[in-house]
Amino acid sequence: MMDFFTSSTFQTVLSALNSGFLKTLQLFFITLLGALPLGLIISFGSMSRFLPLRWVTRTFVWIIRGTPLVLQIIALFYVPGMKDWFNWPSGESGRMIAVCVAFIINYACYFSEIYRGGIQGVPKGQQEAGQVLGMTKLQIFRHITLLQMIKRIVPPMSNEVITLVKDTSLARVIALQEVIWMGESFMKGNSGIAGLVWPLFFTAVYYLIFSGVVTVLLGKLEKKMEFFQ
Amino acid sequence: MAILEVRNIEKHFGPTRVLEDISFSLEQGQALAIIGSSGSGKTTLLRCLNFLEKPDQGIISVNGNVIFDAAEPATQRESEVRKKRLHFGMVFQSFNLFPQYTALKNVTLAKELLFQERPEFKANKKTILEEIQEEGRELLAKMGLSERANHYPSQLSGGQQQRVAIARALALHPDILCFDEPTSALDPELTGEVLKVIRSLAEQKTTMIIVTHEMAFARDVADDVIFMDEGVIVEQGPARQVIEHPREERTRQFLSRYAEN
């Protein structure tokens, strides 16, 4: 066993897994960065008083939430080229961009429903209380409803974010070399070490640590807002 | 001159007429109780006064100035409405306190925001905020809540929450304080403390409109009573006379139902 950890094999596997994990991390953060604001915009669309906009938005959200993310990744990556609309940049960076776009759209739709629940969950009386006290709409949003929305949003958002940690592994369907791809490559014998199960097992450890950190951080945020109900 | 003059207010929700030809006036320092069964339009009337609903017809004047005229869109501009609604204070049936703020902050928040918009705020920030805080504490003390200033709403009983809400409404010194069934959401043993506070406000000659189901309270505290049914004012007059010797048959029927319960 000692031999395994000190051997150059271990070094090779570890550095390969690390480079895969870096991609995983990249995908995770880019998705959050894009989907969090986009989701808010979509949620405004799905609550719009302008009916056509509301129905278009809700239908779009229904389609995205109703079909598998894997399918969306594949479609987004291959269809534009097949139809001669446009081509993704070649190589790993092109795959990364395509996968990020698919993830951002998919997660924005899920987030939009969470935002909608959070916004509509704040009782109307809160807004009215602000109005009769002469506050402007902006003041009411900033000082009264925003924090109550965030409190309602954090728990379901945590679920979604932890799902995202694991969903990043779907990127490998278009050959993005994220952490599982790297782990698996050792099993298949690409590096001449066929049959070794350990690397794949280690990828699980990466996910566990990653989702563990995310869980702790979001738990802290939730705790921070326990002072009110 | 009456402090509040309401003339021919009418309000529809879709095809349903909820208020019809509502006219009344209120003198400075007087308390007016509005009674009537659920769905009679009492709450809608109060919400019209506070610009939470827009009447389809009618005129509302405060101190002789027209603040709302259904025929004059200029009186309904958002920026104007904001200033004008400060003539009225509102205490809601369900309190509607801000859960993320302490009792004191609930009372002071609106005033702080209002003062922040003034040009002299930046230079005297500290003194102004201290004065607002001090006044907030005094108001809470008046409500018997000195000890509760730093409690969050969820740490307070319903009666205490409603008293914080009254302090909050008083903080901006409204000309007319409106109560929308202030004790209806409370357990029976908690209504007393809230009614006591309203009673003391009446003794200090606070101008008030109280929508209530507490008949004995309306009779003892209010100067005048309006009885509403199906969106119209059926009877109005001095409190004791309307509640003890109603002239109208519908008022009599309504009050006898209360006597039975």
Summary of the model, kept short:
Chain A is an all-alpha fold and 229 residues long. Chain A is built from nine helices and no strands.
What can you see in these coordinates?
The complex is a heterodimer of chains A (229) and B (261). Chain A is mainly alpha-helical. Chain A has one domain (22-174, 198-224): Orthogonal Bundle (MetI-like fold). Chain A is built from 9 helices and no strands. Chain B has 261 residues and is of the alpha/beta class. Chain B has a single domain, classed as P-loop containing nucleotide triphosphate hydrolases (Rossmann fold), CATH 3.40.50. Chain B is built from 9 helices and 10 strands. The mean pLDDT of chain B is 92. The A-B interface holds A 123, 125-126, 128-136, 139, 143-144, 147-148, 151, 227-229 and B 50-52, 82-83, 85-86, 88-90, 92, 94, 96-101, 109-110, 113-114, 152-154, 168-169, 172.
User: Helix coverage percent of residues of chain A?
Assistant: over 70%
Helix/strand/pairing category of chain B: alpha/beta
- Order of strands across the biggest sheet of chain B? 6-7-8-3-9-10
- The coarse overall form of chain B would be globular
The CATH class label of chain A is: Mainly Alpha
The tally of domains of chain A stands at: 1
Q: Are there runs of chain A of 5+ residues with pLDDT below 50, and where? A: none
CATH topology of chain B: Rossmann fold
Shape of chain A: flat
The number of E-state strands of chain B comes to: 10
Which key terms come to mind for this protein?
heterodimer; A: 229 residues; mainly alpha; 79% helix; flat; B: alpha/beta; Rossmann fold; four-stranded antiparallel beta sheet; 9 helices; 10 strands; 39% helix
Strand-helix topology:
The complex is a heterodimer of chains A (229) and B (261).
Chain A: H1 2-6, H2 8-46, H3 51-66, H4 69-82, H5 91-121, H6 124-132, H7 137-167, H8 179-188, H9 198-224
Helix pairs in contact in A: 2-3, 2-5, 2-8, 2-9, 3-5, 4-5, 5-7, 6-7, 7-9, 8-9
Chain B: E1 4-13, E2 16-26, E3 31-35, H1 42-49, E4 57-62, E5 65-69, H2 78-84, E6 88-91, H3 103-116, H4 125-142, H5 158-170, E7 176-180, H6 188-203, E8 208-211, H7 215-221, E9 224-229, E10 232-238, H8 239-244, H9 249-260
Parallel strand pairs in B: 3-8, 3-9, 6-7, 7-8
Antiparallel strand pairs in B: 1-2, 1-4, 4-5, 9-10
Helix pairs in contact in B: 3-4, 3-5, 4-5, 5-6
